[in-house]
Amino acid sequence: MRPPFTRNTPDTRSPRQAHRARRHPARRAAPGPYPGSVKIALIDSGLGLLAAAAAVRRARPDAGLVLSNDPSGMPWGPRTPRDITERALRCARAALAERPDALIVACNTASVHALAALRAELEPAVPVIGTVPAVKPAAAAGGPVAVWATPATTGSPYQRALIRDFAGGTQTAQVPCHGLADAVERADTRSVVTAVEAAAALTPAATRDVVLGCTHYELVAEEIRQRLARRTGAPVRLHGSARAVAAQALRRLGAAPAPDAPATGTVRLLADGAPVPLPAAALGYPEGRLLAAPAPLPAPARPLP
User: Where is this chain compositionally biased, Polar residues type (predicted)?
Assistant: First the structure.
């Protein structure tokens, strides 16, 4: 009997990529009613990864999460591209020891400067998903648009290119948010309010759509929404990246959303490569409290009749 036909497709991977793929083969889907249970790692300088991690948790409560950050180097924004890349790689390598199925770069700055290096080192064994500010959906909503970002990102060639490519026909303002990411990292409510008010004062009053161009900002979205409404006199739509990034990570893994899956997913935080509990600042946000919630205990066995 002739063997079934198979296409002889050449392997275009480099020897280094092929070696990594052999060392880190794709994990098998978990058995049971929710096939495709996965483990997803996220990296960031600090707590900005909480928003995307919580989005993954809501979409797949059974997914394992590895949070790897760099508190000793936070913030990454003012650092050189080379330094950012080296720090992002260190966070990714620490997370890789936990054998994740995919890695989310939950930081806009790291996605700009380190995404190529991360993909060169981890893929194809571990898919790497970057974070892009939601300029395109904000512009599609009609605008006028304001892009809130760190001072280092505001006006950068990368941000200007995003606005040119995805919001070219929409009135768009770039708003630097001085000190906001640092205040969010510390869960310093007073400093958050001060920074949000300063950014709101720089936002044109006609603005109707605001892009949250730093992942930290999504943790204080409601405060931003309220302050902007006072500034503009009308509701303002906020556009973050967390849900879209979480959905893309699941798509890359072929894992469908299953928000009704059992909440059995574990959470492991690595700070500068060392396992630590979630810091008190993280518990100041709903996203942090969601991730800190313990998995439910198994139901007791029924007594024998």
Answer: 1-12
| 3-class secondary structure, 228 | helix
pLDDT for position 7: 31
Q: Which of 27-41, 139-153, 169-183 has the lowest mean pLDDT?
A: 27-41
pTM: 0.85
Long-range contacts of 273-278 (CB under 8 A, 24+ apart): 273/68, 273/90, 273/91, 273/94
Q: Is residue 15 part of a domain?
A: no
Q: How far apart are CA 19 and CA 266, in angstroms?
A: 29
How far is the CA of 23 from the CAs of 14, 19, 98, 125, 263, in angstroms?
A: 14, 6, 13, 8, 30
Q: Which residues contact 86 (CB under 8 A, 6 or more apart)?
A: none
Strand 267-271 to 64-69 pairing: parallel
Q: Do 164 and 67 fall within a single domain?
A: no
Whether 96 and 165 map to the same domain: the answer is no
Provide the annotated active-site residues. 107, 214
110 and 254 co-located in one domain: yes
CATH number of the domain encompassing residue 177: 3.40.50.1860
Two tokens at 53? Answer: 């991690």
In a domain, 162, yes or no: yes
Domain that holds residue 265: 36-131+243-292
Identify whether residues 142 and 219 lie together within a single domain.
yes
140-to-133, 137, 147, 151, 248 alpha-carbon distances in Å: 14, 5, 14, 25, 20
